Amino acid sequence: MALIVICIIGIIIINISNKKIREYDYRINMVIDIYFFLFIIWAIMISGKDLINGGSSIVYIEMILFISVFFYIKLKDLLTIYILTYFVYIFMIRFTGIRLGRVYPEIINSFAILLICLFVSYTKYLMAMKTHVHLKVIEEKNEKLQLMNEELYKLSILDPLTHLYNKQKLKEVSTQEYNKSAVNDTEIMYLMIDIDYYKRFNDTYGHIAGDECLKKISDKLYSIINEYNGYIGRYGGEEFLVILPNVDCVDSEHMLKELIEEVEKMKIKNEKSEVSNYVTISLGAYKGIPDKKDVSDDFIENADRALYKAKSNGRNRYVINSK
Questions:
Q1: Quick one: CA torsion of 79, 85, 91, 93, rounded to 10 degrees?
Q2: What is the CA radius of gyration of the chain?
């Protein structure tokens, strides 16, 4: 029964000792070393009984062979275990009163096998460590490759200045959400946003200030649109496109007013503006339930027409049309 329990524990130890090559833990390593030490002591006791009865030290020899072949142990730990247990083995022979002359060959053979076991175990450990290092390098390369792929994907869908969706990604999202609304028979709204007198702002304050203005406004617009579970991206120049699915659940007029007011509250000075002392925006919105026979570009064109009307009516305002 005891042997069965020891074998079961040994199987568990094999799994742990193999894992510790990949993830070394001092406490686990110490427990494993103690287990090996006690396991060999048990084998020495069996061999001592066999020697008294005229047998050999085969159990002790088989045990150290078994450990060397099936386990990965650091050379320092293995030397400590084997040397200590070998002295226990010699002491056991002396303690049992067996004539040294009769067991002298056993002592020589066991010592020779012990050296071979050390060599085999050390060689296995080195090979395992090389494999571990190789796998670690591959794992690190895969992680770097994954990060590079993620960065490339972001570059492919985001505008480099505002970090909003670029026009290509917006087209993709537009098609998906338009078709989804058509299938579910739900209302969707497209919103075109333009920064008022942005060219004059650039000419007055320079392109660096113009880029900073774009970034600040895009951040503000994103924070608001995100609250309404919509999508926003830079459509081109100083224009933004917003896609709001399930807009029937949203107070459209309130949201459009909020966008205009929050941008002007940022107080980005624009002395060349004809409608305010600060940077403002104009909005054109178009909403409705899509027809399956139509395409999302029809809604974008209608939102652009509404934007043109808002600008024609004096800017810093919105125009919303419905299907």
A1: -110
A2: 39
At 198-248, the pLDDT tens digits run 999 999 999 999 999 999 999 999 999 999 999 999 998 999 999 999 887
What 3-state class would DSSP assign to 212?
helix
> 271, 276, 279: which is closest to 198 by C-alpha?
279
Q: Is residue 270 domain-shared with residue 193, that is, in the same domain?
A: yes
Looking at the structure, tell me whether residues 263 and 198 fall in a common domain. Answer: yes
- Structural domain count, the chain: 2
Contacts of 228 (CB under 8 A, 6+ apart): 244, 250, 255
Query: Is residue 322 within a helix (H) or strand (E), and if so which, with residue range?
Result: strand 318-322
Distance CA 295, CA 298 (A): 6
Residue 152 lies in a domain: no
Q: Are 217 and 266 in contact (CB under 8 A)?
A: yes
Both tokens of residue 65? Answer: 């062979």
Between residues 205 and 118, which one has the greater pLDDT? Answer: 205
Q: What φ, ψ does residue 242 adopt, rounded to 5°?
A: -120, 135
- Domain containing 286 equals 167-322
State whether 179 and 309 are in the same domain.
yes
Are 32 and 131 in the same domain?
yes
On whether residue 151 sits in a domain, the answer given is no
Q: Is the pLDDT of residue 24 over 50?
A: no
> b/e map of 252-278 (b: 16 or more CB within 10 Å)?
beebbeebbeebbeeebebeebeeeeb
b/e burial code for range 95-133 (CB count within 10 A of at least 16 → b):
eeebeeeebeebeeebeebbeebbeebbebbeeeeeeee
Are residue 91 and residue 127 in the same domain, yes or no? Answer: yes
Q: What is the mean pLDDT of the chain?
A: 83
Does residue 161 lie within any of the structural domains? no
**Predicted confidence band of residue 102 (pLDDT cuts 50, 70, 90):** low
Structure tokens at 312: 């024609």
Partner residues linked to 208 by β-bridges: none
179 C-beta neighbours (distance < 10 Å), count: 14
